[in-house]
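Lab notebook, design round three. We kept the backbone fixed and only want residue identities now. Task for the bench partner: fill in a sequence for the structure below.
Input structure tokens:
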């Protein structure tokens, strides 16, 4: 009899508890009733009941009509909202209502989860129900709108910059074409000037019946013209080729003036002989030193050409010990009125144009070397110094 009573007790206890391992877990009591949503109105229009809705920002007026299952009298309701937005999750406090409906029309764009529960007259909570609303942002606040605006603005600015760069490049291209044509024209102007002086020398030898000198001069002149034509195909020439051309030209001038001067060429060991310089830049300076300085000197003169590095520049130094610029001008004014040498003028224009189109900084300067006083206390300029500086790159 005692054993039977113990079994009955165990069965009764098991009806309310579950033995799980060594722990006794109480079985949760079922909700006495369930909270239900009978109807939802969105912006004044009744919609089909669902667990989640996605609505526009202008349709944020919501109305809920509630009930219980099974239906009970004297029931009150409460709800709370869990908001999920960019600022994070926010849970609002419970709101109690006295009837079976409530309305909300102040929701901003975000995701809202409504938790709704009923309370009977015995203060028991029924099973809650849930419904979710996603209120979309207005189109002007959506990510795709701002993305489209960014892409459009970027495209407009990029297109504008490309358009302006295109026209700037076109303008620069035409400008470079014009300036290169101008440089070519100046080179063509230089060629006749040089050839004219050489032919004058040949004519002088022929008139003096010096056929050997004329033949020798013509041979050197032909070789020089070949070198010049080879180099004139480009705006640049290597320093090594320019030195060959200049040396040959000076030899011709020495023949022309019957060894009236000695030629001294000095190249610093650290000078790169394969560096490029503009074609026919140095020849007019040397021609000027010979024709306007050494030519009028009564005694034998000297022409010095020196190449050396000076900081970021390659320097060509041309020096003569002739009569000087002022004395040369006085002599020419008496013997050749109205004539002006165009070599230096053309070279100066070429350098200015070349610096413009090549964004370079080639400089040159001309100065008198020294001043001496003769026996009559007359001050006379002696010699001329020319320095041409080529910027080094790389």
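Proposed sequence:
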């Amino acid at each position: 009899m005692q054993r039977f009573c113990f079994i009955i007790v165990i069965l009764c206890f098991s009806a309310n508890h579950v033995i799980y391992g060594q722990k006794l877990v109480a079985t949760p009591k079922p909700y006495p009733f369930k909270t239900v949503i009978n109807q939802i109105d969105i912006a004044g229009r009744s919609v089909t009941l669902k667990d989640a809705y996605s609505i526009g920002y202008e349709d944020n007026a919501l109305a809920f009509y509630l009930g219980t299952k099974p239906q009970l009298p004297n029931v009150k309701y409460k709800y709370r909202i869990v908001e999920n937005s960019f600022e994070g999750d926010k849970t609002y406090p419970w709101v109690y209502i006295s009837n079976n409906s409530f309305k909300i029309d102040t929701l901003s764009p975000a995701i809202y989860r409504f938790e709704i529960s009923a309370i009977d007259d015995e203060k028991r909570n029924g099973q809650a129900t849930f419904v979710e609303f996603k209120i979309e942002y207005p189109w002007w606040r959506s990510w795709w709108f701002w993305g489209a605006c960014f892409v459009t603005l970027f495209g407009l600015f990029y297109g504008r910059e490309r358009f302006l760069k295109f026209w700037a490049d076109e303008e620069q291209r035409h400008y470079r074409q014009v300036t290169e044509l101008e440089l070519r024209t100046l080179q063509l102007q230089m060629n006749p000037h040089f050839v004219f002086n050489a032919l004058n020398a040949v004519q002088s030898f022929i008139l003096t019946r010096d056929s050997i000198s004329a033949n020798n001069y013509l041979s050197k002149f032909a070789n020089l013209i070949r070198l010049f034509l080879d180099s004139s195909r480009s705006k640049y020439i290597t320093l090594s080729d320019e030195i060959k051309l200049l040396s040959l030209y000076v030899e011709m001038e020495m023949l022309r003036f019957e060894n009236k001067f000695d030629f001294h060429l000095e190249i610093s060991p650290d000078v790169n002989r394969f560096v490029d310089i503009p074609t026919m830049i140095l020849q007019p300076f040397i021609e000027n030193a010979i024709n306007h300085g050494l030519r009028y000197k009564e005694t034998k003169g000297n022409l010095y050409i020196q190449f050396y590095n000076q900081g970021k520049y390659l320097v060509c130094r041309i020096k003569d010990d002739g009569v000087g610029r002022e004395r040369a001008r006085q002599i020419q004014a008496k013997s050749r009125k109205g004539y002006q040498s165009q070599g230096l003028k053309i070279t100066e224009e070429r350098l200015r144009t070349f610096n413009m189109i090549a964004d370079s900084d080639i400089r040159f300067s001309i100065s008198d070397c020294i001043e001496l006083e003769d026996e009559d206390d007359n001050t006379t300029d002696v010699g001329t110094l020319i320095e041409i500086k080529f910027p080094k790159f790389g």
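Keep this in mind before ordering anything: The CA atoms of residues 64 and 102 lie 6 Å apart.
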